[in-house]
Amino acid sequence: MGLQETPSGERIHIGFFGVRNAGKSSLVNAITGQDLAVVSDRKGTTTDPVRKAMELLPLGPVVIIDTPGFDDDGTLGAKRVEKTRKILETCDIAVLVADAKCGLTDTDKELLALIGERKIPYLIAWNKTDIADTAQQKEAPERALKVSALTGEGIEALKERLGQLIPDKEEKRLIGDLVQPGDLCVLVCPIDDSAPKGRLILPQQLAIRDLLDSGALPLVCRDTELEAVLKRPGIDPKLVITDSQAFKKVGALVPDDMTLTSFSILMARYKGFLENAVHGVRAIKDLQDGDKVLMAEGCTHHRQCNDIGTVKIPRWLKEYTGKSIEIETCSGNAFPEDVSPYRIVIHCGGCMLTENAVHARMEQAIGQGVPFTNYGLVIAFMTGTLERSLRLFPGLHDLLTET
Length: 403
Fold this sequence. Notes:
Layout: E1 12-17, H1 24-32, E2 50-56, E3 60-66, H2 74-90, E4 93-99, H3 106-117, E5 122-127, E6 144-146, H4 155-165, E7 184-188, H5 202-213, E8 217-221, H6 226-231, E9 239-242, H7 247-253, E10 259-262, H8 263-270, H9 274-281, E11 292-296, H10 308-321, E12 326-330, E13 344-347, H11 355-367, E14 372-374, H12 375-382, H13 386-389, H14 394-402
Parallel strand pairs: 1-3, 1-4, 4-5, 5-6, 7-8, 7-9, 9-10, 11-12, 11-13, 13-14
Antiparallel strand pairs: 2-3
C-alpha cells in the first residue's frame, strides 16, 4: 500500500441492507457506476458481503458494502444473516433498501432496530419507484427518499444525502497532536522475517505521515542501527516510537528520561480503546494453568514462520506466566460471538478495521466479562516497559501507577 492510498480502516464504510430482492445490488451498482454486485431476479443472489473501496463524490474515500438479504432462510441463510449483523458493527452509515411496492416489512423494521442499537446514521432508500405506488412510503420521511436503480431516479440525491450523514467527528491524530513543529522523532522499524517485503506496515506509514503533517522530523531506522543513531552528535529525540516486538531491546538503549512508546499503543489510542486496553492488560498476571487466551487480528495477512500473533506473543506469554495456557487465534471477520471461555482477548492494533468494528469487539468482550487489550500493551507489560510507554499519556500513566 502506498502512502497516498487511503487504507480501508480510514474510509467511510457504507452498508446497504434489506430483504432479498429489494434491489440492494442493483442500487449499489447504480451508485458506484460499476457492476460491483451480481444482479438477478432470483432471490438471494448475493450470498456473501461484497466490498468495494473507491472514491465516491461528494463523500471521498469510502468502502461500499452490499449485504445478503436479511430475510434469507435455511442453514446457509442463517449464516448469511449473521454476516450481515457483523457488517452492521463496522458501518459508519447504513442504507436500508426497501421495496416501494411493499412498504417496510417486519424484517426491515428489525434491521432498523439493529441500526438504532448501534446508533448508526441511516437512510431509507425506497427502490423501484419507477414501477411502484409511492403512497405507502410514510415511515421516517425525514430519512427516506425515492430512488430507482433501473432509471437512475434519485441516485444523485442519495449520494448527496449520504454525504450529509458523514459523522462530524473531531479530527483524530495518531501522534501529531503530541509533538511540536521541529521535534525530532525516531521511529524504530525492525526488518526481520516477519516484516513485509518492500514496504512498511500501516501504523508506521500513518505515523510518518502524521509527523510530517505536524512539521515534526521523523527519523526512521532499524533496531540494529538505533544505538549508533542515538550516539550521533546533535541527535536529541523528543520521542522514540518502536515496533512492539523490539520493546525490550529498544527500552535498554533509549535513556530513561527520553519518551518511549510503540506504534501499537498509539494505534490503541487512535482507535479509541487505549484506556480499556490498559485496564485489560493486567489480566496477564492472573493467568492460570488451563486458561484460554484469544489472539485476534483484524486482517488476514500471509503469516510468516515467526508471526507475532500466532508464534511470538504466545511463546512470550507462556514464558512470562510459567503457566500451561491455551492459545487460540482468529483473523479477519472471524471474531467469535461468544468469548466468555477466554480469560483475556489480545487484539492487534486494528489498523485495517474501522473504529466502530474495534469498539464492537471490545464491547462484546467486556460485556461478557472478558478483559480486552492489544499486542503492544501486552508486550510492554511483559518486558517491563509499560510504565515508560504510557508517560506520553499522563492520565493513563497515573491510572497504571494507582493500580
